[in-house]
Structure formats: structure tokens, C-alpha cells
């Protein structure tokens, strides 16, 4: 995310540093692809090398999945806002026609809802507490 923010806020002449000359949609899409690939790589590694039956581990994996999804959502929101503002709300911009933003938003919400049950189960049971 740091590289993404550095690309978006790279104009030293703008008061906030926002660089309005960069291609927000391309940067947002590329960043989303990078975050998605990194998340998939680490989830494979975690599933192969950790005990998935451990409730604390399951909770931490859920938090990590949420962090990846939320990072993707932040990157895509920049592209979406820029595309929407540039076209005056028309549906002619290809970035607005993609369902990528909706899919990532839905996944983020589902992770929160589904992982709340893990959280409740973990903190409500003795096996999750440290002895």
C-alpha cells in the first residue's frame, strides 16, 4: 500500500500531494492485482504450514484475510472515485463497468460477518485462553 500511496500522492506542487496527472484506474487495478497475488501466496503458505484447527490461528488468519481484502478495497476506491468524478457519473468509463469493486467490497463484508463468529467462539471458550 505504501507504493500505491506514493504513486497517487507524488505531486510536490499540490497542497495535499495528490497527483491528478497519473492514471488512477491503472494504478488502482495494478495494485489490486499485486495485493491479490500476495494474499493468495501467503494464504497457501499459511494453510500448508499452520494448524488450522487451532481457534486462535483461525482468528488470526481471518484478520489477515480481512487486511488483504481491505487493502484491495482502499486501492480500488481511489480508482473508482477518480473514474466516477472524471465522467460526471456516466457509465461510459470501463472502470465503472467492472464489478471488481463490488466483489472486493462484498468479500470484505463477508469476512467481517463470518469472522465475527470465530471471534465470539474463540473468546467464549476456555481452549482459546492462555493458561
State the end-to-end distance. Answer: 37 Å
Can you give the helix content as a percent range? over 70%
Q: Domain count, please report it.
A: 1
Let me know the largest β-sheet: none
Q: Give the overall form.
A: elongated
Round the mean pLDDT to the nearest integer and report it: 79
Report strand %: under 5%
Q: What's the count of strands?
A: 0
Structure notes:
The chain has 131 residues and is an all-alpha fold. The protein has one domain (24-128). It has helices at 2-8, 24-49, 55-86, 94-97, 100-124. Helix 2 (24-49) packs antiparallel against helix 3 (55-86) and helix 3 (55-86) packs antiparallel against helix 5 (100-124). It is elongated, with a radius of gyration of 18 Å. Residues 123-131 have low confidence and may be disordered.
Provide a quick synopsis of the model.
By secondary structure, the chain is mostly helical. Helix content is 72%, strand content 0%. The chain has one domain (24-128).
Strand and helix map with partners:
Elements: H1 2-8, H2 24-49, H3 55-86, H4 94-97, H5 100-124
Can you tag this structure with a few keywords?
single chain, 72% helix
Amino acid at each position: 500500500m505504501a507504493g500505491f500511496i506514493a504513486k497517487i500522492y507524488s505531486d510536490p506542487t499540490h497542497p495535499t500531494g495528490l497527483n491528478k496527472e497519473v492514471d488512477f484506474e491503472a494504478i488502482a487495478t495494478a495494485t489490486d492485482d499485486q495485493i491479490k497475488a500476495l494474499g493468495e501466496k501467503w494464504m497457501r503458505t499459511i494453510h500448508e504450514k499452520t494448524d488450522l484447527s487451532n481457534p486462535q490461528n483461525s482468528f488470526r488468519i481471518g484478520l489477515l484475510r480481512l487486511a488483504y481484502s481491505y487493502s484491495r478495497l482502499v486501492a480500488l476506491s481511489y480508482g473508482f472515485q477518480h473514474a466516477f468524478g472524471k465522467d460526471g457519473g456516466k457509465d461510459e468509463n470501463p472502470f465503472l463497468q467492472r464489478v471488481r469493486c463490488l466483489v472486493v467490497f462484498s468479500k470484505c463484508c463477508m469476512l467481517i460477518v463470518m469472522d465475527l463468529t470465530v471471534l465470539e467462539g474463540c473468546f467464549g471458550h476456555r481452549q482459546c485462553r492462555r493458561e
